[in-house]
Amino acid sequence: MALRTIRLQGDPVLTKKCREITQMTPKIQILIEDMLETMYEAEGVGLAAPQVGILKRLVVIDIGDGPLVLINPEIISSDGEQTGSEGCLSLPGKGGQVTRPNHVIAKAYDENMNEMTIEGKELLARAICHECDHLEGHMYTEFVEGEIYDVPPEEG
Length: 156
Ligand code: ZN
Description:
Blueprint: H1 26-41, E1 46-48, E2 58-61, E3 68-79, E4 82-86, E5 94-100, E6 103-109, E7 115-121, H2 122-135, E8 145-150
Antiparallel strand pairs: 1-2, 2-3, 3-6, 4-5, 5-8, 6-7
Bound molecules: zinc ion.
């Protein structure tokens, strides 16, 4: 496994729509392992492939309950609302208030290309929405209510 370089806001790769993954390959398996390692090293709760420069529909998430790998994720239903602080590994040290659904259901494929459904509430719902936005070339900063503020490292 290897750490990948996290692309920062301003890098054009973060504004592009990502392509679907049609089959698992050794290259994508390595990418998944590298993305998990990179996310943990950066102490993030999620990372999308475009954040390491790869325009594929792949995200990894870990809100503290273990790693989740979502391939071609698609939110199929959402309800409720939560407003809270959000940050991004592509904009380190910053945060902003974003309103998201409080509950989402998404379908995706796992690392064995088996179809799965994932249900997320609160932080997991927020993370799924945030990472799916990356696959469409969007950053949370587009949806921030009010100012983007500095976040002390121990909170970010
Ligand atoms: Zn992000």
